[in-house]
Design goal:
alpha/beta; Rossmann fold; six-stranded parallel beta sheet; 6 strands; globular
């Protein structure tokens, strides 16, 4: 059977084909826009142990190294230890410092609000099933950022905890810290696959002699570092 093609239909089809060909040629002939270079970003780790040479700091350093390895040319990392610092959580409640009382929190503000900082990882030892008092005071002092326009909003956050037992309260500690970070509008993540849970619960087994010998814990620590870095890159490219 012959198709009944009208002159108007034929010309319309021909015109559409010509237009499509012209568009395709224009697209092929046009130069593709240059891709924007990846932004340099920074990831901080906050060690909330009162001990300067702590297992928590050691675990955070491993975490940061894994984060930097995601993109060594564009990711910088820094570990900040709160050990030895005076941070009074009462200030967040509007209670003034005592005359002559030292306050080290203001010195941390420029680091935390640096526009280059895209990720913050917080680590705490487990004391009686939860975070240290130093960690709690630090989180309470973050109230200033919430009051001043949510300055930590959309920064990626990860948490790890180190305990003296394999199941010594690490998960509860992690969730407690995460709850505070949610209140800052931060993008809270856990470790990536294959475990993909809340965050690393590291076992500081005295028989190991070194917290980095906890192979299970270190695998999750590295996975958290990767996850924070990967999400931070996605956020900063948006």
């Amino acid at each position: 059977m012959k198709r009944n093609v009208t002159r108007r239909g034929f010309l319309g089809a021909a015109g559409a084909a010509a237009a499509a060909s012209a568009v395709a040629g224009a697209v092929q002939g046009a130069e593709a826009p240059a891709a924007a270079p990846p932004k340099k970003l920074k990831i901080l780790a906050i060690g909330c142990s009162p001990k300067a040479d702590s297992s928590t700091a050691a675990a955070l350093q491993v975490c940061l190294e894994a984060a930097r390895a995601v993109d060594p040319d564009h990711i910088e990392v820094e570990l900040i230890k709160l050990a030895g610092l005076r941070i009074n959580g009462n200030v967040a409640a509007g209670i003034p410092l005592e005359p002559g009382e030292r306050d080290d929190f203001p010195a941390l503000v420029p680091k935390l609000t640096d526009p280059a900082v895209a990720g913050i990882i917080i680590g705490s030892p487990v004391y009686f099933g939860n975070m240290t008092s130093l960690c709690k005071a630090f989180l309470e002092r973050l109230m200033v950022f919430r009051k001043e326009g949510f300055q930590l909003s959309n920064k990626v956050a990860g948490v790890l905890a180190v305990g003296a037992a394999r199941n010594g309260g690490q998960e509860l500690t992690i969730k407690s810290i995460q709850t505070a970070l949610f209140s800052q509008e931060m993008i809270v993540v856990g470790e990536t696959r294959p475990t993909a849970h809340f965050g690393p619960g590291v076992w500081n087994n005295k028989d190991f002699g070194d917290v980095t010998k906890d192979e299970v814990g270190m695998a999750t620590v590295k996975a958290l570092g990767r996850r924070v870095a990967e999400v931070a890159r996605l956020v900063t490219r948006a």
